[in-house]
Amino acid sequence: MESEKSALDLAERLKLIEDMLAAGRRSTESWGWTFLLWGVAYYVAIAWATWGAGLSVWGVGGRQLAWPVTMIATFFLTIAIGVRKGRGEPETAMSRAIVSVWICVGVSMLLIFPALSITGRLDEHGFVALVAAMLGVANGSSGMILRWKMQMACAVVWWVTSVAACFGTGAQLTVIFLVALFFCQIVFGIYAMVLESRRNKMSPAVHA
Amino acid sequence: MNDVTQDLELTGRLTLIEKMIAEGRRTTTKWGWSAVLWGVAFYVAIAWSSGMFGGAIWGQHYMAWPVTMVATWLLNWGLAARMRRGAKAPMTTVARAIISIWAAMGFSMFALLFPLGLSGRADQQVCVAAVATLLGTANAASGMLLKWKAQIACAVVWWLASAASLFGTAMQSLIAFLVAIFFCQIVFGIYAMICESREQRRQGAIHA
Q: Which of A204, B136, B201, B203 could staple B158 via S-S, CB 3.0–4.6 A?
């Protein structure tokens, strides 16, 4: 009797975890636009900072406003669109975990990068290595929580970028960063948006 | 009727999340030893790299951080595997999320700090700031997920240490790092171990 009850309890728990995984993945898919938005924002910042000069992440003097202005504008745009889109699905333990991770990575980035920039302690290589490591934390933990191979692959790309950023020339660094942004922000963002749109198309059919 | 069912479902879901958070916090307290272990490892690495130990092996100061960190990681891994083998209950969703956050943070730290150290692209202050920011992120995400004020306080201490390291001198950066390790690894780890031992005693009393 007791073992039957515990088997039922385990089955229920497993079913619940599976449901939560699916809900968490759906919730991440609904945020696909943020990946895309931030990917484009990084591209805009790099293009603005380096336009007409050689290939680099920060560019040459005179365009110091490119990165802060683009990042702050994207931050406010993300909040505005996020508020308009609404809360979406009800909260689960899994979605709470993912939201906590991304909020904390965001706060950490908002604290460390202005501080590094004001003190002038970091060069382009260190900057890319740190950005990649922080995005590796966020994608890695989300991917592991959701058991989502695509997001885990993004985390691996970010970790490889973090290692590679410490070596090589400035031009190589820019190419590595642009490639990582392309795959982990733009492609992954579009992929998540496609999954969400497919699901939205399927759900009216289910409810009809 | 439908509203009542929905309310009941939401209440059930909230109760379950609260239960999972409580279980997650109990799981985290079981890892208090790991916080203490890493705190001691940081102290050993700092003492070794500063030349506080004598002798042929301890004279190799450049080996201090890689050797101490790799040895601690292996020790942590071995002890964690033993702990998981002896676990009686299956892992909860929140516990899985916490483990994912810390694992991703660990990977990022290794991917960032070893190449930064090897390439010589960052000074001591930037390295301390990077470590403190990553630990702040992981503590904040865990603390938010578990609604655990003590862990959120640790995150704030790490973020303050990161800022102090960037804006102060090399000596001030070292002091900020030592103080943050003491409070957020050693004191917090011991506090978690005390919480765990109290919980075990309480459960023992209930089962008796």
A: B136
Within a domain: residue B44?
yes
Q: How many domains does chain B have?
A: 1
CA-based nearest distance B104→chain A, Å: 5
Q: With b meaning 16 or more CB within 10 Å and e meaning fewer, what string describes A119-135?
A: bebbbbbbbbbbbbbbb
B77 touches A: beta carbon within 8 Å = no
**pTM of the entire structure?**
0.86
In-domain check, residue B7? no
- The residue extents of the domains of chain A are 2-207
B85 is a domain residue:
no
In this structure, the number of other CB atoms found within 10 A of the CB of residue B30 comes to 17
As for the ipTM of the complex, it is 0.84
Domain of residue B201: give its range.
20-77+93-207
Q: Is residue B6 part of a domain?
A: no
Q: Which residues in chain B have Cβ-Cβ distances shorter than 8 Å to A133?
A: 108-109, 111-112, 130, 134
CB of A77 less than 8 A from some CB of B: no
Contact list in B for residue A139 (CB cut-off 8 A) is 104
Q: What is the pLDDT of residues B116-161, one digit of tens each?
A: 888 888 888 999 999 999 999 999 999 999 889 999 999 999 999 9
Residue B148's SS3 state is coil
State the best of A9, A110, A141, A156 to mutate against chain B, taking most chain B CBs within 10 Å.
A141
Please write the tens of the pLDDT for every residue from A53-81. 777 888 766 677 888 899 999 999 999 99
